[in-house]
Amino acid sequence: MNFASDNAAPVAPKILSAIQKANGGAMPSYGNDPLTKGVEDKLKDIFECDLRAFPVATGTAANALSLSVMVPPFGAIYCHRLAHIEQDECGAPEFYTNGAKLVPLDGDGGKLAATELERVIALAGAGYVHHVQPAAISITQAGECGTVYRPDEIAEIGLVAQKHGLGLHMDGARFANALEFLGCAPADITWRAGVDVLSFGATKNGAMGAEAVVFFNMERAREFEFRRKRGAHLFSKMRYLSAQLDAYLTDNLWRSLAANANRQAARLAAGIANTPGAKLLYPVEANMIFARLPEVALECLAVSNILYYRSGQDREGNVRLVTSWNTSEHDIDHLLKVIA
Amino acid sequence: MNFASDNAAPVAPKILSAIQKANGGAMPSYGNDPLTKGVEDKLKDIFECDLRAFPVATGTAANALSLSVMVPPFGAIYCHRLAHIEQDECGAPEFYTNGAKLVPLDGDGGKLAATELERVIALAGAGYVHHVQPAAISITQAGECGTVYRPDEIAEIGLVAQKHGLGLHMDGARFANALEFLGCAPADITWRAGVDVLSFGATKNGAMGAEAVVFFNMERAREFEFRRKRGAHLFSKMRYLSAQLDAYLTDNLWRSLAANANRQAARLAAGIANTPGAKLLYPVEANMIFARLPEVALECLAVSNILYYRSGQDREGNVRLVTSWNTSEHDIDHLLKVIA
Amino acid sequence: MNFASDNAAPVAPKILSAIQKANGGAMPSYGNDPLTKGVEDKLKDIFECDLRAFPVATGTAANALSLSVMVPPFGAIYCHRLAHIEQDECGAPEFYTNGAKLVPLDGDGGKLAATELERVIALAGAGYVHHVQPAAISITQAGECGTVYRPDEIAEIGLVAQKHGLGLHMDGARFANALEFLGCAPADITWRAGVDVLSFGATKNGAMGAEAVVFFNMERAREFEFRRKRGAHLFSKMRYLSAQLDAYLTDNLWRSLAANANRQAARLAAGIANTPGAKLLYPVEANMIFARLPEVALECLAVSNILYYRSGQDREGNVRLVTSWNTSEHDIDHLLKVIA
Amino acid sequence: MNFASDNAAPVAPKILSAIQKANGGAMPSYGNDPLTKGVEDKLKDIFECDLRAFPVATGTAANALSLSVMVPPFGAIYCHRLAHIEQDECGAPEFYTNGAKLVPLDGDGGKLAATELERVIALAGAGYVHHVQPAAISITQAGECGTVYRPDEIAEIGLVAQKHGLGLHMDGARFANALEFLGCAPADITWRAGVDVLSFGATKNGAMGAEAVVFFNMERAREFEFRRKRGAHLFSKMRYLSAQLDAYLTDNLWRSLAANANRQAARLAAGIANTPGAKLLYPVEANMIFARLPEVALECLAVSNILYYRSGQDREGNVRLVTSWNTSEHDIDHLLKVIA
């Protein structure tokens, strides 16, 4: 049983079927196929606006390429200290931006606050030649601590970005989980709140390896295709990425997959909250639970067949548990039994 | 009917089945799965040596990452003027090497000659601080003109590389086709001939999106994993890449798929050779035909449902026709009928 | 006696005096001093237009930084095969552009022809995602073979650049020598002919280490200061660079220094033309002579105290002889006597 | 009167004389001159060891190039949050390392503590492919707050670097000032304490624009010359940089220039300590004073002809005052009178 990561889950059946269905015969390569065009159209409907969308295969590619078109080499990118782009991409954003600087900031529950961004950017020295130049803000939705930005929180950040002329990027590796929690329109937490570019994730939520880079700010999209190719992320047999995204976006599959993951996370959180000696470290709003468990629970976990991560720098008793599109109530109940 | 590229072909059924079969349940991510380990073992058997193998999803990633561990930013990479890395990757090798210089060379039939390499490298100014420093040779097997390096041709190039302390990279996007033509052991055209790193292609030959970077020189592999991750080419759900490669390497599937493509190419070449006014531009040794067709044949092609490329800089009458793992005799005969 | 390079010459006395004079007391650093402002003003007068000018200390810095603001990482720079940026900068342009591709072209006498540029750029695949994108043309004035572009030759190249939306850069390491030969207005071979950015050289012509990057296209200048600082080429004690340039531009010093170098080169060329068995390889238009010398002359040179370069790839009998601002008639006559 | 920066000071007379003296006639370019060789020899004597030394013209070049040979693109560089490389070089280290990550750390008085480095590096995830890899530590001597590392503090840091296989770089822009304070041997705070590469500054201490990159670890020097050229920091007329360094190192000039700056700083610090309402923020150990001044003193300063910096993020009442090789007692007394 795997609670280590939603990356460990298999591909959702409907997405796998779509891949098979796309396997009919010859089809133009490098994205000049009808499926790829269709994905963009579906995203326009979902986000209720004009946009450009480009499939890539990894979340790191989506993030790093998004930033590469927003940030000059001498630019600064403001992000949370725990952000995936700062912690877990082995410097991919620095590589793709040709050496821009990530400025890691603190923020409660893994979220950046507009006030802190305003404070830091105002002091950053825009125009001062000795300093890297404020260029973009990147936020993660849902965030690294499993919490979710509210629409007004994003809109406030969007205003800071706008005021200082910065791009606003959203790492939406778990965008569906965040949306499912909020119940708002996708537009409310993206372009209406000032987001320029979204890494629209699917892999963690049931796809095989497919994300879409979504540009609400069309001007930012101009260089994208060259940078994607140059980064070796333009797939010759693109149809298989697009088929995944097409199925993901059809009949609300993306929402229902996320809904299950969130539901099981909530069930798990409730169980942990009731476990004597256990403590949830953050509000559980998406599909990640961070908890401190009593020693005896950790020992039982360690000898079980359940996979999970120790979390935090001291790693004392803290665990990260991630639910997936295919996590079942039975899985949750089994896990709760082990730690009880 | 598509003769434009082997990229336009679908996925071979056995490879698609392997993907489905890999979809059983949770599996460790980022390559820590048994399938990925198995691919490396199969390649050891095939190449009859110890090696390191890393799956990536695109041929450009395989090439650019291979070069990135062989070449410092101030290095020179010697390749054919028509090489994919020089012509068709939008500067990916320059990106991944942080700005190394590709030195394009001439060579008959799309192949580099050891004598020309020796001449150029000897004059390159090794150690001279004003010049970029000779660092690697990259050859393509089968090459951009559809021709195939013989083992002794590669071995001679290997000696030049060794003499000057350069790495030798092989772009094997169509490695199976070359091997099928030669009928020799895989080792004979790789490590036994001095090749350090091979981009072992599968995508063009029936996979969905999977290549292996194969290191015969283990020292070169040390940095690879960091550079792959940093390039955003480490797949979280790696099992689906490895499943493709595993099926590809099982029961000689890779050889039989290439055998069909080569056989149909030979059939097509014979037909063109017999077409009045038509002329093959290069020996047809793999699955690509470059031919000059008479005007009337071009006109018939243009109004047919057959896709293909005009080739060459003048594009006057020259066509590139590529056969695939799934090209049928019927396809060839239909094409020949159109141009006859 | 040194004919190897104008780099071997010392600093012209008036320039050294200016450095001393600038040494009075405290002065604002990083270019916020009156001397630096003054240099820009003097260049505006000389070029009869508004412009931005930035001192740097090396010609390679001037070239690489100029290109870095004109060319995206996925861009192509068209230059002569013998260009300094292609041959002699150890990849600095690739470094500063984050991996753009230099496309080396042939051209008589070290000069690019507009027709050849048009032909190549038209075929380059602008907008085609697999190819690097045409971004800039770089020409050298005077050129690597000691020849000089005429105003109309540059204007034709300027039209090609304009037609295709490319930037036009001029490497003017020996700009003064070219101008002295032509006798036209500086504007005639720069902005009036379509040049966007000029590396305005002084070091080879009597300065200690000072060049100015001159932007006729102000839009291109926006990022320059950040890239200069980031390249570590913003001098804290900038006044000493600016003092050099100020003296260089005062009372036509730059022109008279170049006039002497050209005059001595002409004298040397005439002498070589009259030497039996010797042959000038290119018209001598600036301060560089490329000649084929008879064996006996080479032997005499080899045992003399005169420094020079063998030139060309075969180096058989070919020499490069460079005159400087301080070369004397006596030096020339001595050299001619040795090879006679 | 200028207390804003030691960069605002002119060139020391003996250094200017040396430049003049170097102006005799032709001399081999690009460092192949006797002066450049001599500088290396003098540094060997001073540091009592074998070493390689390379002149460059700016401190940022010295730092960024030093790091570029120690750190792969996927590497992490640990430095103080206030370090010049982190704050004031517009991302030059990121540029020269092709995108390595600077990890800013806290530390009292602008100094890093070995214990904090050990803690952070131990948790950094060496070998873990998702994280940038620990590669170098950079410390500044004297530091950004005007304090000086003691030999044992550096040696402890050296042991951390050695334990984890990291390079140790010292930014010695004010190395002479630190040494003058400590009174120890130069070796004691460099190679004997584990420093691999030193940016040996001269510009801030009386030179025009000259620093030496000093390699105690010869293996690290191998790539340096190519990277310097590629960074456009190889001067054709190198003799003028070397002449500065030669004079600087002759007859202890470097020590006596720093001694004056330190002496005047001590005098100023004593005066501030005696000023009612004023407070020194850090121990004054080199030539920089950070102080909080009473409102009335700030008002008097503001209307005086004295230049200085407000410091700190809030800038409330905090000033930075820097003395130079040419600061006089009279300057100090005048400044003290203004703020009294």
TrEMBL record, chains A, B, C, D:
Q: Can you say what this protein is called?
A: L-threonine aldolase
Annotated function: Catalyzes the cleavage of L-allo-threonine and L-threonine to glycine and acetaldehyde.
Aromatic amino acid beta-eliminating lyase/threonine aldolase domain location is: 3-290
Recorded hits in InterPro entries, A to Z, give: ArAA_b-elim_lyase/Thr_aldolase, Low_specificity_L-TA_bact, PyrdxlP-dep_Trfase, PyrdxlP-dep_Trfase_major, PyrdxlP-dep_Trfase_small
Q: Which residues cross the membrane?
A: none
How far does the signal peptide extend, from start to end residue?
A: none
Decide whether keyword Lyase is in the record. Answer: yes
By sequence similarity, the record places it as follows:
Belongs to the threonine aldolase family.
Broad class of enzyme this protein falls into: lyase
Q: Which GO terms describe its molecular function?
A: threonine aldolase activity
Q: Which GO terms describe its biological process?
A: L-threonine catabolic process
Q: Which Pfam families is this protein grouped with?
A: Beta_elim_lyase
Q: Tell me its EC number(s), please.
A: 4.1.2.48
Subunit note: Homotetramer.
Question: Sorted alphabetically, which keywords does the UniProt record give?
Answer: Lyase, Pyridoxal phosphate
Supply the source organism for this entry. Answer: Sneathiella chungangensis
Reactions catalysed according to its record: L-threonine = acetaldehyde + glycine; L-allo-threonine = acetaldehyde + glycine
According to its UniProt record, which cofactors does this protein need? pyridoxal 5'-phosphate
Kindly indicate whether the keyword Mitochondrion belongs to this entry: no
